[in-house]
Amino acid sequence: MAKLWGGRFTKETNKLVEEFTASIEFDQQLALEDIKGSLAHVQMLAECEIISLEEADTIKNGLETLKKKIENEELEYAVEHEDIHMNIEKHLIDEIGTVGGKLHTGRSRNDQVATDMHLYLKTKTTEIIQLVEQVQHSILVQSKANVDTILPGYTHLQRAQPISFAHHLMAYFWMFERDKERLVDSLKRVNVLPLGAGALAGTTFSINRERVAEILEFDSIYPNSMDAVSDRDFILEFLSIASIMMTHISRLSEEMVIWSSQEFGFIELDDSFCTGSSIMPQKKNPDVPELLRAKTGRTYGNLMGLLTVLKGLPLAYNKDMQEDKEGMFDTVKTLDGSLKLLAPMIETMTVNTGAMRKAVTEDYSNATDLADYLVTKGLPFREAHAIIGQIVLHAIQQKKYLLDLNLEVYQEFSPLFEEDIYEVLAPENVVAARNSTGGTGQTQVKKQIELAETKLKSVEKV
Ligand code: ARG
Questions:
Q1: Domains and CATH numbers, the chain
Q2: Across all residues in the chain, what is the average pLDDT?
Q3: Which residues contact 227 (CB under 8 A, 6 or more apart)?
Q4: Which of 38, 156, 253, 338 is catalytic?
Q5: Pair 92, 59: CB distance under 8 Å
């Protein structure tokens, strides 16, 4: 079949070359963006009197017909026409005749594909922001219900100090808040129009790029045509934000796997979010958080892949850049699926307050409070630390916890101990005492939740 660019060729393209160079298999996902960009371009061409109004109307009608076919999944794509841009142009010419060939006036596939990608990420970034908010909402729901749920906080995965479960969960709220801020900020660079850059150097036609930007609702246009067709930073940026976000999802997933183990028993995932074993009848496996943890790998891979594709490219367009798409589509799909599962999984999990409480009673995570107690009685912290260390050692040897030791025992280590230590050591008091701004004290956690609610509301308007 004759190629749209076949004029200077004397031979048919080798079949393997045709298949190897074609992107239609995956870039057909950009079909609606491609039509949208073409509609804006043709409108501008007519307004600038580069084509006539009738020609523009015929082309627009043809594009609208193709749009309907795309929406109904009726449009057929051919590898001979390489990519989505030439497939659509070919269909247009078949539909309305040779006037369809005027659509490509003053533009190149290089600025066209860049425009499609900008349009695509504009929509997807906005959708992902909304999905992140749903996850944040789920975190808030669980946090509000668990301000008074106390469990050990860990460092080095060793019990460290008692915390409110809400405080632990809210840490993830702020990670996702930063991810969202990054996505919102990236829209500044996504909302820039490449169209009108031509192949690389601009065009001889008196086009109006600002008008196209206005129709497509871009905030600005690329000031340099070579940068316009070569820039893929906005995709790299999306892939790196996605990678950071998947890191957060993965860390939370890891905690959910650990917490739902029998050894911890801190949470139980809803049956509808777990799977069983084909051999062991008792099993209830946390496959969803496990896969969320694993899918982080492909997201990093997509970022590394594109960074590597771009790093050695001379200006301007190079065919290498066609490799920017599959990784981007894959990351969008991965993030979309992950966020959609994470929100209900958090919301439906059962929090086992009893197991958490037991853990915090059967440990030494209140030891810091005992040291702080001696400090309030005037002892330098370092000396207090040493004394409590000896008391902990003594307690371990006696197979007791700090609350089980008699006051006489305490007073053998320091005369500063009085009856009120038992109050200081009680887990809820240990938590409440960390009332410094941003601390785990219940009063602080409630303030934090209030702040989070205002953040969620303000970003909803963006
Ligand atoms: N399919 C191509 C891509 O995705 C479109 C641009 C092709 N431009 C070219 N000069 N061959 O990158």
A1: 12-105 (1.10.275.10), 110-205+216-358 (1.20.200.10), 364-453 (1.10.40.30)
A2: 96
A3: none
A4: 156
A5: yes
